[in-house]
Amino acid sequence: MYPEDIDQHPEQAATTVPLANNQTAHIRPLSAGDRAWLGAYFAGLSQTTRGFYGPHPFDQATADKICDEICHADILRMIATIEEDGRTRIAAYFLLMFGIREDDRGRYEKLGISLDKATDCTLAPSVADDYQNTGVGSLVIAHLVDIFQQCGRKRIVLWGGVQERNARGVHFYKKFGFRKVGEFMAKINNYDMIKAVTSDE
After folding, report:
1. Residue 45 gets which letter from DSSP?
2. Its pTM surpasses 0.90
């Protein structure tokens, strides 16, 4: 699979999985028609969760802009939707960049780690507050690791690192094989963490 294939055939990156609470999560690429659900997802995030996640603002205008400019070959935006009380809602939203941000590359170079935009990728996950600790985040990231492998990617780095104070997030990443390689200050202390996708890394 190539990243550009996902724009043409988003179903190739989709799956359906059962949750521990007996609900079913549909994991798939974000589509232009998801703007209302995405806006509602952003609006429903607590200030604590927003404080741990920083790629973009959390409002309907941002959701509209994202849905108008979808290009999964550059940034794969994955959502996990669930049916709740007869309505569909987003329970998790993950950004996956097929490449490396310059800010992240610079920090890793100072650590003696050379990142390659052709084979490395960048992850920024988030989960709705009331779906944290339900297993949906773990199911999404497991699916995404498989997609990365199919796209020939070798390593995943965290988008802007993870805040030291986000103990739940740090534990989550370690559970999935991310290792801490450095620390940096950006108002508060952050960890840079990286994960090998393939067994030869």
Report:
1. S
2. yes
